[in-house]
Amino acid sequence: MSGSRPGRKSKGRRKAHTIRFPEELYADLQKDAAAAGYTHFGDFIVDVVAAMRDTKQWPRPDHLQERLRLSA
Asked: By residue range, what is the domain housing residue 47?
């Protein structure tokens, strides 16, 4: 069955995750992905995150959302 399936070659097991980007950031990232030659936005995002992981230079949150108290 190898080679008989249409589409891109498998990249191995993956885990799906939905991210809600701020609209302006999303537009900028779309442009960055296209400028870098990516045809699949998800591939670009995975590569960006992997590169950040390799550098161990994680961004720090500039705000911490206060937890809401639970009510009965």
From this structure: 23-55
Per the domain annotation, does 39 fall within a domain? yes
How many domains are there within the chain?
1
Q: Do 60 and 72 contact (CB within 8 A), yes or no?
A: no
Residue 66 lies in a domain: no
Q: How confident is the model at residue 39 (pLDDT cuts 50, 70, 90)?
A: very high
Least confident of 13-17, 48-52, 58-62, 68-72: 68-72
The verdict on pTM exceeding 0.85 is no
In a domain, 34, yes or no: yes
